């Protein structure tokens, strides 16, 4: 076999380089192809068709419960409710947290296509895709290099938290994606100078902040710079140079975001129940014992789940390097390099206590992670060695290693203790419909579902209103009798070992049926009984 001569070989490479360089769409096509490939590598096709499970099934089913209640009851957007009747002194599930537009839209899609959890997941995956694609386009404007832009945007899709929660019903990945989309439209305004782009950006910013207020760190940094220029720079020296009409959309963002959280407080106070914490839980208001527990969780679990640890160390080193060249950076670069990471650190300190079992709160902070890498490529883009094939190869190797690491961590989430509760208890609860039909247990019949420490997990799986251990005390006879008086007709037990407890056994005398690990008992006979002395 003949080997092509060197000049001819390099001519082919040069022609390929010209095609890739001069076709502005090649990067977009490759971005889409790589995103789809990563979905396949991460087995997201299987995840799409699976039930909610693994870590934070509690929070997954809360989102699903709100969507399903929109579907079942045709509530207005501003009247979300759950299956769990822990509000209104045990008489309703009306409670609000994040702005429920995604849940409301999913319910409308279910009206057309039927109730399928994969539709919810697909909606979230598409939002995440468009968010990362918007980040890719934004980076490409500043870097003029589609490879580097793809690295900055797609490296976020190697975070196990982003991949797992981004498709599993939680709002955090959606909020991060919406912020990226908002910044893309801000960039469009600066390119075309049409104010309507800012209003479109304002919509996505408001949507993102009403879902997760901690995603505001990039917006705060940006508006801080605008205020800095208005106060300390002459008009001709300003980089952003906004007039009052350009500032107005951001004021509306702040006003609408504030209005939503005021409404949430009003709605939850009115119905006396909330499923989500909106006040700060700072590090300085916690016990040393709880601090040690969270620190242990961070070291053993969160560090691996957030992003490959070596990538986190590398990113920190990059940030230190950027900060050390302070005198060489522009003022706006230094502003971002200092303010964004400081904002992320502040969020950690102000909400540190929620890290006790809530790793997904860290997702929105990845916007600072992306900014650090964007700044690195921006600083180095004029160096010829950055375009050397070896450098591209190194970046590809880093990316591939992160993909491999993410794949391994994702598989671990569906094994062992992380998925025990679903496999051993809740999976069967989600298959009770035939037995319910046989026993004539209607969809509006209230149940007591135990053991279940979550807000609504088992209730969502069986699609019945009722009560879990959240907001009820089923360790006392009074707890059972109170819920029976409020309309609970059936006792659903998903772990039969609790039937050995005297208080539970006392209300499990009227056996009705069993499916796998689930036993069902009739509570109606107790509705007319007086408490035992």
- Output the strand order for the largest sheet: 2-1-3-5-4
Given the C-alpha coordinates, what overall shape results?
elongated
- The helix/strand class is mainly alpha
How many β-strand runs? Answer: 5
Proportion of residues in extended strands: under 5%
Major β-sheet, in short? 5 strands, mixed
Order of helices and strands: HHHHHHHHHHHHHHHHHHHEHEHEHEE
Walk me through the structure.
This protein has 533 residues and is mainly α. Helices cover 61% and strands 4% of the residues. The protein is built from 22 helices and 5 strands. A 5-stranded mixed sheet has the order 2-1-3-5-4. Helix 9 runs antiparallel to helix 10 (196-211) and helix 14 (309-324) packs across helix 16. It is elongated. It starts with 5 loop residues before the first helix and ends in an 11-residue tail after the last strand.
Task: Describe this protein with a few key phrases.
single chain; 22 helices; 533 residues; five-stranded mixed beta sheet; disordered N terminus; 4% strand; mainly alpha
Q: What's the short story on this structure?
A:
The protein is mainly alpha-helical and about 525 residues long. The chain has 22 helices and five strands. Strand 1, helix 20 and strand 2 form a beta-alpha-beta unit.
């Amino acid at each position: 076999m003949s080997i092509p001569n060197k000049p001819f070989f390099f001519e082919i490479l040069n022609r390929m380089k010209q095609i890739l360089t001069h076709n502005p769409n090649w990067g977009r096509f490759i971005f889409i192809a790589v995103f789809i490939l990563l979905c396949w590598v991460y087995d997201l096709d299987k995840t799409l068709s699976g039930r909610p499970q693994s870590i934070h099934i509690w929070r997954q089913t809360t989102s699903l419960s709100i969507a399903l209640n929109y579907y079942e009851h045709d509530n207005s957007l501003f009247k979300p409710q759950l299956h769990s009747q822990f509000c209104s002194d045990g008489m309703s599930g009306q409670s609000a947290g994040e702005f429920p537009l995604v849940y409301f839209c999913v319910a409308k899609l279910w009206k057309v296509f039927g109730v399928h959890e994969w539709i919810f997941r697909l909606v979230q995956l598409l939002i995440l895709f468009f968010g990362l694609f918007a980040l890719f386009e934004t980076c490409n404007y500043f870097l003029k290099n589609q490879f580097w832009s793809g690295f900055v945007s797609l490296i976020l899709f190697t975070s196990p938290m982003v991949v797992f929660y981004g498709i599993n019903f939680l709002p955090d990945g959606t909020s991060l994606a919406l912020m990226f989309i908002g910044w893309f439209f801000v960039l469009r305004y600066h390119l075309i100078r049409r104010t309507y782009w800012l209003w479109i950006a304002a919509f996505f910013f408001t949507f993102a902040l009403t879902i997760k207020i901690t995603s505001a760190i990039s917006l705060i940094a940006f508006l801080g710079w605008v205020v800095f220029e208005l106060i300390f720079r002459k008009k001709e020296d300003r980089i952003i140079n906004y007039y009052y009409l350009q500032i107005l959309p951001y004021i509306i963002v702040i006003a609408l975001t504030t209005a939503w959280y005021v409404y949430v407080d009003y709605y939850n106070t009115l119905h006396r129940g909330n499923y989500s914490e909106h006040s700060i839980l700072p590090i300085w208001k916690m016990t040393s014992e709880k601090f040690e527990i969270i620190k242990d969780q961070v070291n053993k679990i969160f560090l691996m789940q957030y992003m490959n640890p070596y990538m986190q160390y590398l990113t920190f080193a990059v940030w230190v390097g950027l900060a050390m060249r302070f005198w060489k950076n522009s003022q706006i670069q230094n502003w971002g390099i200092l303010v964004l990471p400081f904002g992320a650190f502040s969020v950690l300190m102000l909400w540190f206590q929620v890290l006790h079992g809530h790793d997904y709160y860290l997702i929105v902070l990845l916007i600072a992670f992306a900014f650090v890498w964007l700044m690195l490529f921006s600083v180095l883009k004029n160096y010829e060695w950055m375009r050397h094939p070896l450098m591209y190869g190194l970046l590809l190797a880093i990316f591939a290693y992160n993909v491999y690491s993410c794949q391994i961590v994702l598989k671990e989430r569906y094994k062992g203790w992380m998925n025990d509760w679903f496999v051993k208890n809740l999976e069967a609860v989600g298959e009770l419909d035939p037995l319910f039909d046989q026993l004539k247990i209607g969809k509006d019949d209230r149940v007591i579902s135990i053991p279940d420490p979550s807000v609504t997990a088992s209730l969502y799986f069986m699609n019945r209103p009722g009560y879990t251990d959240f907001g009820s005390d089923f360790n006392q006879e009074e707890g059972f009798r109170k819920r029976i008086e409020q309309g609970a007709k059936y006792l659903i037990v998903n772990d039969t070992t609790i039937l050995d407890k005297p208080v539970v056994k006392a209300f499990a005398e009227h056996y009705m049926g069993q499916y796998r690990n689930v036993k069902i008992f009739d509570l109606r006979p107790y509705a007319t009984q007086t408490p035992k002395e």
